[in-house]
What we know:
Layout: H1 2-16, E1 20-28, E2 31-38, E3 44-49, H2 53-58, H3 62-65, E4 71-76, E5 90-95, E6 98-103, H4 112-134
Parallel strand pairs: 3-4, 4-5
Antiparallel strand pairs: 1-2, 2-3, 5-6
Amino acid sequence: MPGQRLARGVARLLHSMDHAVLTEFVPVRGLRVDLISLGPKGEIWIVECKSCRADFIADRKWQGYLEWCDRYFWAVDEVFPLDLLPDGTGLIMADPYGAEIRRMAPETRLAGARRSRLMRDVARVASQRLRMLTDPEGVSGGAF
């Protein structure tokens, strides 16, 4: 899938910046972000990967993601029509092998209680996914 290839390149970039990255994370019922990352100072970034105009137009939930992060980015490839992307968001140019931040997203700090909940939820989901890799039959029920 094109979006997953972009996500891989973005994850490599974020990892190089010492972020812990989780893909396809659900911060709250009804929202699923492509990538969420925890930075070395506890900052929380969300990145949505868009592979084409139709993919962007079909996304009607992205503004709901803003209240779940300190910084919000779009990740697109070199042929994506950049004029579609709203002002006040970050921009990452990506391909399957890497990425580059072209426009830093403005920072809107999360409230402490929401940050704490998100960090706990990200840790739990990451732990469950790791457990599935090491013992696929030992995990039952639950969404991750």
